[in-house]
Amino acid sequence: QKEVEQNSGPLSVPEGAIASLNCTYSDRGSQSFFWYRQYSGKSPELIMSIYSNGDKEDGRFTAQLNKASQYVSLLIRDSQPSDSATYLCAVNDNTGTASKLTFGTGTRLQVTL
Amino acid sequence: DGGITQSPKYLFRKEGQNVTLSCEQNLNHDAMYWYRQDPGQGLRLIYYSQIVNDFQKGDIAEGYSVSREKKESFPLTVTSAQKNPTAFYLCASIRGHWSSGNTIYFGEGSWLTVV
Questions:
Q1: Which residues lie below 8 Å from residue A95, measured CB to CB, with a gap of 6+?
Q2: Distance of alpha carbon B9 from its chain centroid, rounded?
Q3: Which of B93, B79, B31 is nearest to B56 (CA)?
Q4: Is B103–A8 a contact, with Cβ atoms under 8 angstroms apart?
Q5: A105 contacts B101? CB cut-off 8 A
Q6: Which residue from A5, A30, B106, B109 has the least number of CB within 10 angstroms?
Q7: Facing B98 at nearest CB: one of A4, A42, A99
Q8: Is the pLDDT of residue A6 over 90?
């Protein structure tokens, strides 16, 4: 079974610091990678998507992809208490005619004052 | 406003009872998905459907059933065969494929508890 691995945390960072979240995946054929933020009891919301090797920046968020190492990461600069949530890594799985996402178990981030 | 509506938000099931979770979307999306999330866990795929009248099993389909009679609707039935159904259930949809850069939309989720 194709797998997406994340450290469950919690990852604790002080306010204003950089939070670094990591994810590895098992399927070398994966083409699309996503980071979702999920607050407790709520549905996930898309933070970033990345499709090619390198960095992609959007505001305080930077996604990094290294397909050779099967590794994708999310950096959050100037972390705020409102960033405290669980961050889910998701990888696409194109099987036959269908496309679906496989999710990691998530990393819980705590931004402390 | 366009979006995905899940109902009910909270549902209690007695032992041996079947229950159905509703998922309706007015986004004209082709593909729809049901995920299950247990506390402190990621999302696991139950069933998905790419087109009307067709659906496929995901990773944890046992004890669940679905139908896709209309493009807008993808109800999930949790049957009595599902021995541990207490979880948060999420419905999602997308217009095309994940790799085309399309955005996935999630419903607000349904909490199912066995009593």
A1: none
A2: 13
A3: B31
A4: no
A5: no
A6: A5
A7: A99
A8: yes
